[in-house]
Each structure stands twice: as structure tokens, then as C-alpha cells.
Amino acid sequence: MAKYGKKILYLAAAILLSLPVVSCHSTSRNTHTYRPYSERRNRGGSSHDDGSSTTTSQEKKKPIPQSAHGLVSDEWARLDIKLGRHDNKKLYKELKKWLGTPYVYAAHTRGEGTDCSGMVMEVYQEVYGIKVHRNSAKMLEENCRVIDLDDLKEGDLVFFCTSGDGRVSHVGIYLKEGKFVHASSSRGVCVDDIHQNYYATHFHAAGRVTTRH
């Protein structure tokens, strides 16, 4: 019996050694929830305010619909869209003048160079006669009241956390149909869709300007 017992043990050990080794790893899924950035999981990778990020090979395989100007139609990209009687034509006219302005950190001159908060500051002064902070985080903290995404209206501000540390670092001006204008660090002032994966992931809050500083 002892002889048979040893054979069984040897056979069991051989079977165990022949089994493949399986590694366990956690996977993260892309999400389009709009909870504050600080409440969401750190997805890893470096990110920038222009929508570029370091992604995994799995994420790169996911198709993102594109056109000549990304997720927006040519008409939206040029703001050559049909406006209704309730649209703020002065806002669209002013923003159209800013389109294509190169990104220049700490600048705020239309046609020459601007960063995101500089563009917002100048547009708000020109269109609404309201002076807002030069810093995107300060804009949200001191110039706005937070609103729900469903309440977004033309002229409201949308804030993003793009630096990976949970702090507000980017701002744009909402228009309608999910589109907003902002100063991208790689493309300059342009129109993007808030539902694009990058902006949905890094979205922090929507704000309606209510105060002056």
C-alpha cells in the first residue's frame, strides 16, 4: 500500500507541475460618468488638456469616430452652424474670432496666443462684461455655482482635471449639443465634444458664472 501511495503522490505532483501558470491582473474600463474627477479611479498614464493621453494597448484598440476635425463636424469646427433666435449670436461671433489662435501659456491675445483661462477671461469680458479670474480653478471656486450637466446652457463653463492630481486645470465655454470651445495645448482654440472619451473621463464640474471678483 505504501508503494502505491508514493506512486499516487508522484503522479499528482507531475500533473500539478504540468499545469500552465495563470497571472491575475485587474483591468479598468472606460467610463463616461461625470462624477468629480477626485471621486473616480486613477486611470494611469499622463494626460494633457488637448485630449492626448498615454493609454494602454487595450484602450488604443477601441475605435473612436473621427472626422476631419475629430468628433465634430466641419460646420461645428468652423462654427458655421445655424443659430436660432434664442442663441447668443454675440457669443458665437466672438468665439469664431478666437478659433485657430495658437496655444501660448499665460497669454490671452486673440489671434496671437492664449491659454484656456485667458481665452475664457477675455470672451466673458467682451460678451458679458463680466470679469472672471485668470485661473481655471479660481473661476470655479469664486465665479461660478456648480450645476448639473443636464442644466448646461450656452455660455456656461466646463472644467476638467487634466494634470492627474485631481485639481482643476482646464476650462472651456459650453455652446450646445455637447460642444464646447477651449484652448488646446496642441491645436489652439478649437471646438470639441464633451462626450469624447478623454473629456468625459477628465470632466470635473459644470459651472454657471454668477459673481465678479
Can you describe this structure?
The protein has 213 residues and is of the alpha+beta class. It has a domain at 74-80 and 88-213: endopeptidase domain like (from Nostoc punctiforme) (endopeptidase fold (from Nostoc punctiforme)), CATH 3.90.1720. Helices cover 29% and strands 17% of the residues. The chain has helices spanning 2-18, 57-60, 74-78, 89-98, 116-127, 136-143, 197-202; strands spanning 108-109, 113-114, 144-147, 157-160, 170-174, 179-184, 188-193, 203-209. The strands form two sheets. A six-stranded antiparallel sheet has the order 3-8-4-5-6-7. Strands 1-2 form a two-stranded antiparallel ribbon. The chain is globular and about 35 Å long. Residues 15-34, 40-48 and 50-69 have low confidence and may be disordered.
- Number of discrete helical segments: 7
The appropriate CATH architecture of the domain at 74-80 and 88-213 is Alpha-Beta Complex
How would you describe the shape? globular
Largest sheet: 6 strands, antiparallel
Q: CATH homologous superfamily of the domain at 74-80 and 88-213? A: endopeptidase domain like (from Nostoc punctiforme)
Which CATH first-tier class of the domain at 74-80 and 88-213 would you pick?
Alpha Beta
Poorly predicted sequence stretches spanning 5 or more consecutive residues? 15-34, 40-48, 50-69
Order of helices and strands: HHHHEEHHEEEEEHE
Percent strand: 15-25%
Mean pLDDT: 78
- What is the topology, as strand order, of the major beta sheet? 3-8-4-5-6-7
| Rg, Å, rounded | 25 Å
Cα distance spanning the termini: 91 Å
What is the number of E strands?
8
CATH topology of the domain at 74-80 and 88-213: endopeptidase fold (from Nostoc punctiforme)
